[in-house]
User: What shape does this take?
Amino acid sequence: QVQLVQSGAEVKKPGASVKVSCKASGYTFTRYYMHWVRQAPGQGLEWMGIINPTSGSTSYAQKFQGRVTMTRETSTSTVYMDLRSLRSEDTAVYYCASGDAFDIWGQGTMVTVFS
Amino acid sequence: EIVLTQSPGTLSLSPGERATLSCRASQSVSSSYLAWYQQKPGQAPRLLIYGASSRATGIPDRFSGSGSGTDFTLTISRLEPEDFAVYHCQQYGSSPRTFGQGTKVEIK
Assistant: This one.
């Protein structure tokens, strides 16, 4: 079936980097753009950026410019989100989601930034 | 950036009642590219409505969306026990995609 499966929870220290993966299956990987969205504890949803899985081109929310990199590996139908210079405010569940309207969501990856 | 404001913040209703949720945009949403999502605790959001009024696959017809321009509404005609959750609106017509802050529908 159509699904996005993300990598497991991470605990990082302030200043470190985290790389979250999202593997697509059940559909043609290059058909839909992939987005990353995060949700801090008890908060709303925050869009981080988008990657075109065909070309690899990206567009990031201004808030994350310079700190985030999204990449893809077409051979494994996987996209990655790399967030650097982590701070406590980056503690959140990170989701990948595909489609124009976000039809398909990953299960989420909890990233905890803790000194 | 388009700012989406949802109201009310919390809606307290009983099963069987009608729920009306509002999403107002700071500027016109292009081509009604407005979506609604349902989120339950510990789960990823689920797409309910796209294009302001089209139901996603498998969504019951008690859920309906309406509106255009800057004012959008999600209506749940008769609340079922499984409908108590948080609802988010989102615009995907321009970048950055933005979400509202969410409306919690709780059992009265």
